[in-house]
Design brief:
By secondary structure, this protein is α+β, with helices and mostly antiparallel strands. Helices cover about 10% and strands about 30% of the residues.
Length: about 190
């Protein structure tokens, strides 16, 4: 007989709890505290930009101007004085003593509040192998200050110069009819910290 009252108390408690919950939800009441959400993101975040445009590129034969093309990376008027433009570099046949220059205009686009970049040149490897690159010498220069460029430098053109020489010291028949690939020559605009 003692078991029956305990069961009925538990049963009545469960029913009362269920009714209370039903009253809260069914009669329009909720079991919640006040709250509010507010958007705090005001607008969008937009990425900046880094790009490099190269234009006006040309090769010059500077053999007659008397400068050492291996070290002289200056541009016109002094650096190209006495030089003649090469219309088609693939048709030009270099011989020992020749000094050539490649000149181009490199214009960086830099957009970003904290952007910094360096403008550099990657040159083909020389001094080894069995093709013409074993004998040629190459140097590069970029006008102005090509490092630590910022958004203020965006759109400011810089002259990029590559000086290439087949030294007159190349003797016998070293390098005859060989080719030097210039596909490894690149101008690079690279973001820096």
């Amino acid at each position: 007989m003692n078991a029956t009252p305990k069961k009925s108390h538990a049963k009545r408690g469960a029913i009362a709890a269920g009714l209370g919950l039903a009253l809260l939800t069914g009669v329009g009441g909720t079991f919640a505290y006040w709250s509010q959400s507010t958007n705090v993101g005001s607008g969008d975040i937009t990425a900046g930009n880094l790009s490099l445009a190269v234009s006006g590129d040309a090769w010059y034969d500077c053999t007659a101007n008397g400068t050492s093309a291996a070290t002289d990376t200056t541009t016109s008027p002094v650096g190209l004085s006495g030089c003649s433009q090469i219309i088609d570099i693939t048709a030009f046949r270099i011989v020992p003593g020749d000094k050539l220059k490649y000149v181009a205009t490199a214009t960086p686009t830099l957009v970003g509040d904290n952007i910094k970049a360096d403008l550099t040149a990657t040159l083909p490897a020389t001094g080894s192998g069995t093709d013409l690159t074993k004998w040629i010498t190459v140097a590069a220069g970029i006008s102005g200050s090509p490092t630590g460029l910022t958004e203020a430098d965006s759109g400011n053109a810089k002259a990029a110069i590559v000086a290439l020489q087949l030294p007159s010291s190349v003797a016998n028949q070293d390098g005859v009819t060989t080719t030097a690939s210039l596909t490894d020559f690149k101008l690079n605009l690279v973001q820096v910290p």
